[in-house]
Amino acid sequence: MRPRLFTPGPTQIPERVIAEMSQPLQHHRSPEFKQIFAEVSENLKQFFRTAGEVLTLTTSGSGAMESAVVNLLSKGDKVISIEGGKFGERWGEICRAYGLQVVDIQVPWGDSIPAEEVRTTVRQHSDATAVFMTHSETSTGVAFDVKGISEVVHAESDALLIVDGITSIGVLPFEKDQWHIDVAVSGSQKGVMIPPGLAFIALNDRAWDRAQNSDLPKYYLSLLKARKALAQQSTPFTPATTLLIGLRLSLEMILADGLPSFWEKYARLAHATREGAKAVGLELFASTPSNALTAIKVPDELDGHKFVQTLREKYRVTVAGGQSQLKGKIFRVAHMGYYDHLDMVSFASAMEMALQDLGWRFELGKGVAAVQIAYATAGK
Amino acid sequence: MRPRLFTPGPTQIPERVIAEMSQPLQHHRSPEFKQIFAEVSENLKQFFRTAGEVLTLTTSGSGAMESAVVNLLSKGDKVISIEGGKFGERWGEICRAYGLQVVDIQVPWGDSIPAEEVRTTVRQHSDATAVFMTHSETSTGVAFDVKGISEVVHAESDALLIVDGITSIGVLPFEKDQWHIDVAVSGSQKGVMIPPGLAFIALNDRAWDRAQNSDLPKYYLSLLKARKALAQQSTPFTPATTLLIGLRLSLEMILADGLPSFWEKYARLAHATREGAKAVGLELFASTPSNALTAIKVPDELDGHKFVQTLREKYRVTVAGGQSQLKGKIFRVAHMGYYDHLDMVSFASAMEMALQDLGWRFELGKGVAAVQIAYATAGK
Questions:
Q1: Among candidates A154, A372, A168, A144, which has minimal Cα distance to A266?
Q2: Do B363 and B252 have their domain in common?
Q3: What is the CATH number of the domain that holds B108?
Q4: Which residue in A has a C-alpha nearest to residue B246's C-alpha?
């Protein structure tokens, strides 16, 4: 078998993007490169569905998350953090690293939270200066209701709504401006289909006002520096130039088809995969699943590590296992990225064969058939 | 003409490294990738000439500089910063962003400082917890005496010596352990010949002891997190995987030839280039030049911006102009990277032609001849 990558970041990326990044290096301050950076920065606005600037950092997504904290908050601030997985918890961890007072809204892993259930906490802590949340929680495969929570937060307080959109932007319907999301963060190895190494952050005017007065220390992650450089079509520090070259092409490809066509495609791939898993007797983990990835429970009778290892070693299909408290209990397969329906058929086939290797009892072919039926039914 | 990049980062990189980075993406937690990361991390030790761990961050070199500050110092600490250019000043800027008390040793741009001249300040501020310096100051093309300054610092105080080796490691003779350099930082688009997007930092045991007690806030740049992950052949956050794939090959290529052969090569290329510049009547800017790059004064009669622009637009040779107070006054040409003697001949030829275009009077061919004579004289 040839290797197939189905991890929820890095995802598979288009061959054309790989080829594009192989051109001779350019200097990041040359007029040609500034032109490329300006084009990328403009197209990122469309990707984020915002009229405001989108800043590019040379970090992983977590670096951009930290940049939100250190640029928008000040010493002693109280914040609310909605945490239903490893990445939700990261917001709280970063805030605590900077000595902020964190009010956690704990959501059981695998669940999301109805927007209304956030209202009481936001009202009770109306002195909180920010509410942090995750749109698509990659550790559990759960999608959270950003639009609904945004309405509640803005109705009850002046807190900024700061959203981790790392596996949602470009993947799930996401409307930064229309949904009044004050700050949104994303990363490069996800919906935008390039390798890891870049992260993005977009602020609205309210958030920029806060950034002017923030007193937490920062240098490399300073967004005021990044904004000033962007006005000169540049970055304050040497950026990962080859990744930006790839990003120019991938954004062009994505925007040519239009974001809604990607949202729909990922919904179809996710739906088909879920049907495939259920058809072989597996259970889904997420109560309100994200279309970025599907988290599937490993049956108690099977060894979750062995299953993921068999997929990887025998069929060369790499999926992600569970993280933290979910180690060995779930596996996660990506839909976001350069995938189509036949990729999900390949995945379902490998999943079936690995399940059979481990002694799981089901009718071989049922999973693949369910993926095919889902495609036929969707009419595409 | 085809494009030729002579900027002191990004530098030209081997075609084989570009090709290597074009393979299908791998997941950063897979056993195969962990193996690659472990190999890279081992080879980085040889590159830094240290027995201790070298940590890899997904940031530019400035991110690694900030990681040194936030992991090794504590609130209210006093530090000494030796500043003779834009990158030397960066140490002071970062320290001030974190509220540290900074004693500057100002060195005129273009000069270095004899180690003995640092002694009085270090003795006077023996309560300083760190001394920051730059080995190869990229903004001025000056090499500083790291070995000598290290002796003075350690003789006079318990301060950690923290060295920006961004354009020196792999380029100039550099012996982290032998010279008792407590902390050294480097970046990917320099001596290690891959694109920008990764940075490296190495600490000795004394520095790790300090890191245990540092109370400055950090998260993404936490070196304790990075060290813990490295013990598992991994990184705390998703790294720039494609750059690490390139790095594996470039380090293998460099170490196969041996670092000293690179040090010698860059010395020859730098010497030849300086001779070429002098032969056409130009003056060198640096009193103690680095072999990573040569900074050449633009004659008062010529327009420095126009000169760099002519090189780039007419001959497609990209060099760097001056930064900050040196804008328009110097230009800088790289030797570190994937260059050989004939590349320096090409550069000298383009330089001559651009000088002629701008009306500079000299005998055409003298610069190229001087580069050739330097090569012949060196016997290689």
A1: A168
A2: no
A3: 3.40.640.10
A4: A22
